[in-house]
């Protein structure tokens, strides 16, 4: 019985170690990807995306969006949507601040806020849009295969602030 318990403990330790090895890789990739996303640097995101990646934001509101928000299948469709957003709104940054980040089973969960900063037509002034946000990034074989955003679009804090 004692040997069985020791063997079971050894297997659990080895299994936990294997999972722990995978988690930092996924977390490292997801953090780099989200840093690029935060900076609105779509070109830096592109090489981290799998060709068949999926981008979802079921909480997104706006013209032309239905009850399922944003859903894009494939890297090219996701990049086109992100580039369209950048080209339309010209964000200075999306400015994510993450209170909690954890990785499990190839998924990296970010919880915190988006603090998007946009230019205005007035010199010395910018527009800040801040909302609660959760992002879940799934990494497989070293690439992002699924990007999910959940933001509080219905009740953001927003307003004009001095430019930095």
Can you walk through the features of this model?
The model is unreliable at 1-24 (pLDDT under 50). Strands 1, 2, 3, 4, 5, 6 and 7 form a 7-stranded mixed beta sheet that branches. The protein has 164 residues and is of the alpha+beta class. It starts with a helix and ends with a strand. The chain has 3 helices and 7 strands; from the N terminus they run ααββαβββββ.
Strand tally is 7
Strand content: 35-45%
Protein structure class: alpha+beta
- Count of runs of 4 or more consecutive helical residues: 3
Q: Helix proportion of residues, in percent?
A: 25-40%
| H/E series | HHEEHEEEEE
Gap between N and C termini, in Å? 67 Å
- Give the biggest sheet: 7 strands, mixed
Mean pLDDT level: 88
Instruction: Supply Rg.
Output: 19 Å
| Unreliable residue stretches | 1-24
């Amino acid at each position: 019985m004692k040997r069985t318990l020791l063997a079971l403990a050894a297997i659990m330790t080895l299994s936990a170690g294997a999972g722990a090895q995978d988690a930092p890789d996924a977390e490292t990739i997801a953090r780099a990807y989200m840093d690029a996303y935060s900076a609105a640097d779509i070109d830096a995101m592109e090489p981290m995306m799998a060709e068949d990646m999926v981008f979802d934001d079921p909480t997104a509101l706006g013209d032309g969006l239905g009850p399922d928000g944003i859903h894009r299948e494939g890297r090219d469709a996701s990049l086109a949507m992100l580039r369209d957003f950048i080209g339309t709104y010209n964000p200075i940054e999306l400015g994510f601040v993450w209170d909690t980040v954890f990785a499990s089973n190839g998924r990296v969960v970010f919880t915190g806020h988006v603090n998007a900063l946009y230019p205005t037509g007035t010199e010395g002034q910018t527009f800040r849009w801040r909302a609660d946000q959760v992002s879940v990034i799934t990494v497989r074989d070293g690439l992002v295969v699924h990007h999910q955003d959940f933001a509080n679009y219905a009740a953001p804090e927003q307003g004009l602030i001095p430019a930095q």
